[in-house]
Amino acid sequence: MRPPSSALEWIADGIRFLGLISVVAAFVWWTPTDAGILALALPALLLPRLLGIVPGFDVFYGVTVSVAAWSNVLDLYTSIAWWDLLIHFLATAAIAAVGFVALHRSDVVPNPTRRRSAIILLPVIGLAISAVWEMVEWAGKTFVAPDIFVTYQDTIGDMAVGGAGALLMGFALARVRIERAAHHAADRKEASWPI
Asked: Range of 122's domain?
């Protein structure tokens, strides 16, 4: 948790600040439900900073999570036919990547420098995230706002596209690190994992 030192680090922190301001704005100009939707994104926006994700990916992740949350508030998921699938593809990929780093930093998954780890585990993490996302949508429709669009075909499509995005991100993480170099010093000293 060091202060930002590059333009991309400032931009990433600015996205986090805008996320906080968005909750207040939604509460004032939209509805408390919209403010709640945006508030759900706040912990997700903080994760890359806490995990030491490189600033370029941090910006991509922050924009993706923010757009996903605001798309709900602005009804883009229902007004643009393909928007829901695009956001599920991008957001699941980004969140799965950050989740993979969090699991590695917690010593739950093996060294992310092992290519097979990312390729195998990212889709699994992405499908798990997709399932939770769809459960939250179902709970929202059932207990909060019955006008939330949830159908069986939409749910399965969203999960399939999210899994595909996570798989593609797995191939990307097999080649590119998204953690700062300082976090990999311990990796070079670890014994080899079978995966």
From this structure: 7-180
